[in-house]
Amino acid sequence: MAEVKLHGGWASPFSNKVVWALKLKGIPYEYIEEDLYNKSASLLKYNPVHKMIPVLVHGEKPVFESMVILEYIEEMWPHNPSLMPSDPYDRAQARFWIKFAEDKGVAVWKMFFSTGQDLENAMKAALEMLQTVEKHGPGEKKFFNGDDIGLANLAFGAIAYWLQSCVYRDR
Ligand SMILES: N[C@@H](CCC(=O)N[C@@H](CS)C(=O)NCC(=O)O)C(=O)O
């Protein structure tokens, strides 16, 4: 198997999503912790467009954008376990919730960096997002994919990662 490397950052939920997918599938990889104030030459070489983590390098081929990386991992190593349902309708549902997490999860991040009315708005949006998942999400199912963990869970896992960090805000 071509060598797999991940340029990431411990605090980044985007980076952790990729770590979780690689671990779930048991794919061996080399992890390179990036200092975002002093990015490595490799990171700048592999992600010249956004210069951001995470970047997965498979062989010498870089893949960036966390959800694009997760889809790449799923397509490259589809088994052990599969992280997308096999049924096309269920796949569409999973993709909907992934997009929802991507679009709405940012409200949680905004709670870190805003004050006053902006903070109020971010808190309201974050609460609405969580209530929507509670009302329309997996419900009694264990995971979005039913009994099996999937990419939608990893997308929301990143939000949970932010939320646990929010606990420390202003302490
Ligand atoms: N949409 C991107 C977001 C990645 C992102 O925001 N990465 C941050 C760390 S959490 C980063 O590399 N920031 C460095 C910078 O902006 O220069 C993804 O999903 O991968």
Describe the structure.
The protein has 171 residues and is α+β, with helices and mostly antiparallel strands. It folds into two domains: 4-76, Glutaredoxin, CATH 3.40.30; 88-166, Glutathione S-transferase Yfyf (Class Pi), Chain A, domain 2 (Up-down Bundle). The protein is built from seven helices and four strands. It has a four-stranded mixed beta sheet with strand order 2-1-3-4, covered by helices on one side. Helix 1 (13-25) links the parallel strand 1 and strand 2 (30-33). The radius of gyration is 17 Å and the shape is flat. 27% of the residues are buried. The site of glutathione has 10 residues, from loops.
Question: What is the fold's blueprint, element by element?
Answer:
Layout: E1 4-8, H1 13-25, E2 30-33, H2 41-46, E3 55-58, E4 61-64, H3 66-76, H4 88-104, H5 106-113, H6 116-136, H7 151-166
Parallel strand pairs: 1-2
Antiparallel strand pairs: 1-3, 3-4
The structure holds glutathione (GSH).
